[in-house]
């Protein structure tokens, strides 16, 4: 009876979170007690919050300045723990009342043994393989005793069963008396323990995967920061070299230029730092709560420990719902300064030093002269340029001509479906579908003819709907990729939809000097106009709107980035000189890798 009582006391001295004997026990406002280190970990899981939620009853305790050490200590519990540690353990095998002091503990027998019993125990063949712990190691804390659960109502009975509905262990007698009613699901304690340990292992595995995912994201952000830092360093080095060759009067100019470089890069560094900080905070949060839940050597046994375990597992499950990081955002931030470089002013008079410029675009002559009529990104990340005299030309992001196909078809529009089929609009306004190998398919589309509607343009949205805009008819027809009649029409009130681009659930239309963002009913949501200039819209990889402004009188093109409300964000290309600018038909389209293509009737310009 005394041994059973000691076992009950030992269980009462266990922290419900770590399942070890309390160390520096602290009391919450709800009267539940935990180790100080366990409370520190729980508080860290909630970031900067000064409210600590009890894992057992979920009541909240305020922790001023996040200092758990200032919570009241359980002095009585600390004293009891010391008394238990300092109390001699007597042999539990000897029959006599005057029992000698124990020198070892057998983990397999669950008994403390004196020197005489230990000698007999070690000589029996069946007991040779038992795990025996020295009392000196137990008292020093180097090893832990594996205790056997005893029923608190029937101290001589082992808790061999577990009730899933009551969330508690029970002996066989308790099961018969209290857990036989409908709704009670009783299983063997060993089966529950095995299932619980597997659940803990699964949670740890998922936590490790999520931690690895976010660590890779942090490493990737560091890589992007390295690119940004290299840009800043290269510009600064070039500026300093030019400065060293100049006179003292250039000091002010040098500082101005370096400040300009920092102005272009520091904002990007700040963005990347914020992304990194957010990811690292999630790593800390996930690591702490995963360690609390999964780094344990024993299974929770009493109701408080089980309640604490359930709460912590719920917290970990919530943390695991965090979406995986989006690598596009840091890459897009880095690309904001990708093209920044320093250009020295050679042969200039006065104290000119140089200026910060964007990198020079690639200038590629199209194989088919004066015939560009359409442009679209390919599924493989290249750029397709359609020609009104026949053929589609494919260019890589570095300007290499990769392929020419459909040379017998006069192209007025080109697009690609999600399954890589190619959509072609010819000069008679007929739509034809081709396989990824450019074999013609049988689908037929009832479009308006060129005679009744004039010129037309084509785009494909993310749902594989095909849009055809008609200049003279001033409307847009929408087709299913299955072919047949148009599923609906979108009116264009009093303007010609010369070029169209799909954008989320909307369309972007271009009419000479005006760009409009319209919904699926044709209602104009936002409009941008630049009198005297021609505007050419596209959608960036970051889902913003790009607009190229061409000044025909001087042949200069600028490319700017806008929000979904056509509000200006930043200038990407400023007054770039193009050749043969008199023809008033051009196209703008970004590569999937981030480069921006601007196409004239006979040349392709690729801006990095």
From TrEMBL:
<protein>
    <submittedName>
        <fullName>Uncharacterized protein</fullName>
    </submittedName>
</protein>
<feature type="domain" description="B box-type">
    <location>
        <begin position="146"/>
        <end position="189"/>
    </location>
</feature>
<feature type="domain" description="B box-type">
    <location>
        <begin position="86"/>
        <end position="135"/>
    </location>
</feature>
<dbReference type="InterPro" id="IPR047153">
    <property type="entry name" value="TRIM45/56/19-like"/>
</dbReference>
<dbReference type="GO" id="GO:0008270">
    <property type="term" value="F:zinc ion binding"/>
</dbReference>
<dbReference type="InterPro" id="IPR017907">
    <property type="entry name" value="Znf_RING_CS"/>
</dbReference>
<dbReference type="InterPro" id="IPR013083">
    <property type="entry name" value="Znf_RING/FYVE/PHD"/>
</dbReference>
<dbReference type="Pfam" id="PF13445">
    <property type="entry name" value="zf-RING_UBOX"/>
</dbReference>
<dbReference type="InterPro" id="IPR011042">
    <property type="entry name" value="6-blade_b-propeller_TolB-like"/>
</dbReference>
<dbReference type="GO" id="GO:0005654">
    <property type="term" value="C:nucleoplasm"/>
</dbReference>
<keyword id="KW-0479">Metal-binding</keyword>
<dbReference type="InterPro" id="IPR011044">
    <property type="entry name" value="Quino_amine_DH_bsu"/>
</dbReference>
<keyword id="KW-0862">Zinc</keyword>
<keyword id="KW-0597">Phosphoprotein</keyword>
<dbReference type="InterPro" id="IPR001841">
    <property type="entry name" value="Znf_RING"/>
</dbReference>
<keyword id="KW-0863">Zinc-finger</keyword>
<dbReference type="InterPro" id="IPR027370">
    <property type="entry name" value="Znf-RING_euk"/>
</dbReference>
<feature type="domain" description="RING-type">
    <location>
        <begin position="15"/>
        <end position="58"/>
    </location>
</feature>
<dbReference type="InterPro" id="IPR000315">
    <property type="entry name" value="Znf_B-box"/>
</dbReference>
<dbReference type="GO" id="GO:0061630">
    <property type="term" value="F:ubiquitin protein ligase activity"/>
</dbReference>
């Amino acid at each position: 009876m005394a041994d059973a009582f000691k076992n009950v006391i030992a269980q009462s001295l266990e922290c419900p979170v770590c399942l070890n004997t309390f160390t520096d026990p602290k009391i919450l406002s709800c009267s539940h007690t935990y180790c100080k280190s366990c409370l520190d970990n729980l508080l860290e899981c909630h970031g900067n919050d000064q409210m600590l939620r009890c894992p057992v009853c979920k009541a909240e305790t305020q922790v001023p300045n996040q200092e758990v050490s200032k919570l009241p200590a359980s002095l009585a519990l600390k004293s009891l723990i010391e008394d238990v540690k300092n109390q001699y353990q007597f042999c539990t095998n000897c029959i006599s009342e005057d029992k000698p002091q124990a020198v070892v503990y057998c983990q397999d027998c669950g008994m403390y043994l004196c020197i005489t019993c230990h000698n007999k125990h070690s000589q029996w063949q069946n007991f040779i393989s038992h795990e025996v712990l020295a009392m000196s190691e137990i008292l020093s804390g180097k090893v832990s005793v594996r205790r056997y659960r005893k029923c608190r109502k029937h101290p001589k009975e082992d808790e061999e069963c577990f009730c899933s509905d009551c969330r508690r262990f029970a002996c066989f007698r308790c099961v018969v008396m209290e857990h036989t009613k409908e709704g009670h699901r009783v299983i063997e304690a060993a089966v529950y323990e095995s299932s619980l340990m597997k659940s803990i292992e699964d949670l740890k595995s998922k936590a490790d995967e999520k931690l690895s995912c976010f660590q890779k994201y942090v490493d990737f952000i560091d890589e992007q920061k390295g690119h940004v830092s290299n840009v800043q360093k290269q510009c600064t080095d070039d500026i300093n070299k030019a400065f060293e060759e100049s006179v003292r009067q250039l000091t002010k100019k040098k500082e101005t230029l370096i400040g300009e470089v920092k102005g272009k890069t520091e904002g990007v560094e700040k963005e990347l730092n914020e992304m990194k900080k957010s990811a690292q905070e999630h790593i800390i949060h996930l690591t702490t709560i995963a360690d609390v839940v999964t780094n344990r050597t024993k299974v929770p046994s009493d109701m408080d420990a089980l309640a604490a375990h359930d709460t912590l597992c719920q917290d970990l499950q919530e943390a695991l719902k965090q979406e995986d990081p989006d690598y596009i955002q840091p890459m897009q931030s880095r690309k904001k300064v990708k093209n920044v470089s320093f250009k020295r002013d050679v042969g200039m008079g006065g104290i000119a030093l140089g200026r910060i410029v964007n990198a020079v675009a690639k200038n590629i002559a199209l194989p088919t002269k004066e015939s560009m009529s359409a442009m679209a990104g390919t599924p493989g990340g290249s750029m397709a340029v359609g020609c009104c005299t026949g053929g589609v030309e494919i260019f890589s992001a570095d300007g290499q001509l990769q392929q020419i196909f459909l040379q017998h078809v006069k192209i007025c529009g080109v697009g690609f479906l999600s399954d890589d089929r190619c959509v072609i609009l010819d000069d008679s306004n007929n739509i034809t579908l081709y396989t990824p190998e450019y074999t013609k398919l049988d689908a037929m589309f009832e479009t308006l003819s060129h005679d009744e509607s004039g010129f037309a343009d084509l785009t494909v949205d993310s749902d594989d709907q095909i849009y055809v805009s008609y200049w003279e008819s001033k409307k847009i027809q929408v087709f299913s990729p299955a072919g047949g009649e148009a599923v609906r029409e979108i009116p264009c009130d009093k303007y010609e939809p010369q070029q169209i681009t799909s954008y989320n659930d909307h369309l972007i239309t271009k009419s000479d000097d005006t760009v409009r963002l319209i919904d699926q009913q044709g209602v104009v949501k936002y409009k941008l106009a630049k009198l005297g200039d021609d505007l050419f819209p596209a959608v960036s990889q970051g889902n913003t709107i790009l607009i190229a402004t061409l000044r025909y009188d001087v042949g200069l093109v600028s490319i700017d980035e806008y929000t979904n409300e056509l509000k200006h964000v930043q200038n990407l290309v400023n007054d770039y000189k193009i050749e043969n600018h008199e023809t008033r038909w051009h196209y703008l389209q970004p590569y999937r890798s981030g480069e921006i293509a601007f196409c004239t009737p006979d040349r392709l310009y690729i801006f990095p």
